[in-house]
Structures are given as structure tokens and as C-alpha cells.
Fold:
Amino acid sequence: MASVSKATQKKAGAETTTQRSTREFARDVRARALQMVHRASASHIGSSLSMTDLLAVLYGGGILRVDPARPDWPERDRFILSKGHAAAAGYATLAEAGFFPIEWLDTYCQDGSKLPGHLTRGVPGVELSTGSLGHGLPVGAGMALAARADGSPARVFVLLSDGELDEGSNWEAILFAAHHGLENLVAIVDYNKIQSFGSVAEVMRLDPLAEKWRAFGWACREIDGHDHAAIAEALSVVPHEPGKPTAIVAHTIKGKGVSFMEDQLAWHYKSPNDEQLAQALAELEQEKPQ
Amino acid sequence: MRNTFVNALCDLAEQDERVWLLCGDLGYSVLERFSSRFPRRYINVGVAEQNMVGVAAGLALSGKVVFIYSIANFPVMRCLEQLRNDVCYHNLSVKTVAVGAGLPYGTHGYTHHGIEDIAVMRTLPNMTVVAPGDPVETRLATAALLAHEGPGYLRLGKGGEPTIHQSAPDFQLGQALTLREGDDVAIIATGAILAEAVKAADLLAAQGIRAGVLSMPTIQPLDTAAVLRVAERSPLVVTVEEHRPVGGLGSAVAETLACAPGPHARLLTCGVTISPSVVGSGAYLRERNGLDAAHLAQRIAQALVGAPSAQPVR
Ligand SMILES: [Mg+2]
Structure:
């Protein structure tokens, strides 16, 4: 834990020096998220860890055109975390990106906090309060439509879970976005293959997922959702096809980065105890370039 | 009412670039006058109410004022969680318009009867619930909801409702409109059933009973001061609505009276109480529910003499 706070101090004083790599950014977000759910005895750490590399490239890799100093800048890109239960990594990312003080993370899920267990608007950088699944993509489509109508360069990125795709509202929005050619809309699926009750394959099959998006009129690409170069390559130029919205099916591992959490349903619910936290942070530490 | 609404919205959209209209593939022969004049601010989202509300919320988060249009329950219940989370939680200027709320789609059957919508909508945070009583109120309510920042619900009849107000009243959201003075009984009506309530007052007048009539276009927030004022002056308050009394105007007035220090008037709630399986036209269903002028007058006269049979006709 000491090394993590050192990383914070380094970051706080590092604004004028070299930028962190997205790998470092992701490692810091993972450590923060683990500490947050540990302190709050909160759930959903597996969901946070599976998408952390995607967020690190979006926010730490300069993909999103946002400015923490002007969170309401009208022409900013919008990012919606439709899987709002992965709030720990969501908030940690925004804090690491400079939208609000790192210290706020200590209050996650505490009484009277600004940071409830699902991502909530009003926190700088949060565009939409989420928590109930299947809401982010329709709202993102509306934002993309507004940006186009206003001649704004803003793009809208929506990150969805795989289990969330069971919700019919997503497929309404998928039809809509393609029909209206919303090429400024990007949907990213954190395809970690696990949902609340078990594997996606057992609960409600999504495969062939990329073909479904394509059949609905989207340009769809599959990537390794932990390969930063692949993520950056897929997101740095959108749309992938003119006149079409873009879907990225990111193959991920639930609990990624902590060996005993990887691919384990239980970490959708459990919170690490002191020992588990120490082990998890030690594993992240080992990842650091020597 | 629906034509009045669309004409009013066209006039407003002419002045206010923020106005958009979305529909859920309903409104044929009504919405064309908007879509032809403002094609860039009109979208038929298809038969997909959840997405309609989400898209409206996204537009509203980008500075638009979005009216969403469909019939009866469809823009209320099918997309209720989107209204709750996306619109009300974020306090966005999305205005839900339900045409044919109440019983005007009579013979279409219960799937097309909007008779629980007030109950649902008035529990939502930040939501303003408005059911105009005639075309004049419809026009004024449309403008008032546009001017009001935040979520709104405009509950309309279908078409052909008579004009009650001979001149434009001073319409304010959250304020009752006095149509008739009279202290023997106070009738409070909301929505298109207002015409029957006014006729009932006329029938009662012929019997020597002086009935006051309040139009209550805004149900949330309720004009509780007006309710308490008439409940102080009259021995009986009667609510009239084309909606279930449970959760509707009847409940809202009962909540107000129950929380007020007594003594105050008794309450008779008149609304839709019969089985959803009864088939018939809007007029027939009004009669079966005791909501037409003749039945209302009869029920009120009976209630005034304390007769126990003041409850709905079955
Ligand atoms: Mg999953």
C-alpha cells in the first residue's frame, strides 16, 4: 500500500513532467479500486478490473477529448459507463485523470459521500448516473444525435457489460444508432464472459456477438481488451466505417490483474480482506517496470 | 386535445430552437404538421419506448427540450425506469405526452386504457404531472411545461373535447382554476372528464344544489391550498377523474385532507373502478364507472344526504 501512495505523490507532483504510460495508469486504477472496495466492503471488484485497461487507454492514453479543468466543455467527448456497478474503477479513473481529488476515493460508499456504489452524475467527469443496466446506450445515442445536429465534433463512447446486453433496451438503441448512421457513437463491450449468476454461455448466450452487431448495421471489431496497443489502435480513429456506428467487442478477463480473482464469479460479490488486499497489491507491484 | 397540443408545440418550436419532438411510431395524421415544419427536430424512433426516453434524455443532457409522444400507457409504463433514472434522477427537460389517457380508446380494450398513469407519474421525483381539462388548458399547459425546467407529464384526451374556458384563464403550473362558485359541494376534476363535472354541476343547480367546480390541471405538485380552501367551505369534496382513484387525484386530495387539521369536508372519490374486462366505448365506460354527468350528479346528491350508496355504479 505504501508504494501505491508513493505513486500518488509522484503523480500529484508530476503534472509538468513525463506522462504516465497507460500501463502505469491502469495499475494505479486497479490498486485504487482494490483499496476502495476493501475499505467499503463493496462488491463488483471483478467488473472493475476487467475494464480497467479500456479506461486507462481512453483516459490515460489521450483517446477521449476531455479536459478535467472544464468538465462541462460543450464540445468534449462523452463517456458513459453503462455498467455503472464497476464504479470503483470508474471513479478511480476520473480521479487519476484529474477530474477530482484522489482523496475523494477514500469516501467511496461511505455515509454522506459524493461517491455512491454506482457511477453518479454530479461527480466531475461523470456524464450519466448508471446502475440499472441497459440505460447507457440509448442515452449515448441521444447525445450523439444532439452533437451531430449541433455540428459539434463531440464523440460518444459507451462501455457496456456483456450481461447487460440481455436488456432489450440496448437492442432498441443498436437499431436506432445504425438507422440514423450515428458514426460519432462508439459502443465498447467488456466481454469478460461472466454475468451475475454464472458464465454468459450458460445464462444467456451472446455468441456470435460481433456478427450480431454487424447484422444490426454497426462496424464491429474484436480486440484483446487488455492489450493497450490494440485498444489504442481500435479507438484512435473512429468511425471504422463511414456512416456507421462503431462497436468494439473487447475480450477481457473478469478480475484481470489479480491472479486469484481472475475469471472467478465470486469476485462479482466478494470484497478482499486485509490479507487478500495485500496480496493483490503485491501482484500489481510486481508488474511495475524495474 | 392532441391537435391543440401539436399546434401549440409548432408555435413554440418556431420561437424556441431547443424544442424537439420524438414519437414512438404513433401520431399518424397528427404529428405531420410538426415533422413537415421542423424535420430536423423530429424523430419517429419506432416502436421502442425505452430507447425513446433514453434518446430524449441524451438530447436533454445536450441542451434540448424534448417532447416524447405516444398513446395511453405506452410512454409511461413501458419506459418507466428510463423516466425514473434517466429523466427524473437527472432532472432533465423531457416532457412525456400521452394522448388518449383515460378511456377514449374504449373499445381497444384495457391495454389501451391509461388509468393508472397519474398514480405512477406523481411518485417520481422532480416530475410535474399535468392533465388539462379542455383545449384551452392544453394550449396553456404545453407552453407552461416548456417554460418549466425539468421533467413533465402532459396527460391528454384524444380529440373532440369541448372547450370549457370561454377565455384564457391565468394558467400556472400547480394552481387550480375556479370554474364555478358554490359551497354546497366542491367538485374537483382533472383531465378531459372536466366537461362531465361541469355538466353535473349544472344538473345539481337545477335541483337547488350549488356546486363549486375546480379544474385541477396540475396533480403534481397539487394545489393543496385550493383543496383546503374548498374543504373548509363545503361539507363535501368530490374528486372526478378518468383514472383509478387509487393513486390518482382522489388519493392526492385524500392525502391533503388527512394531513390537515380537522374538521373538514368528507371526500367522495369518483374514478375508474370497474373490471378491466368490461368492453365498450369511452362514453359507455364512463357511464359504467358512474363518471358521466347524470351519474355524477346523482352520486353527489346522494352523498350530500349521507346515503351510503354514493360509491360507484357497477
Ligand atoms: Mg460480464
Remarks:
- Confidence is low (pLDDT under 50) at residues 1-17 of chain A.
- Residues A 161-163, 192, 194-195 surround magnesium ion (CB under 6 Å).
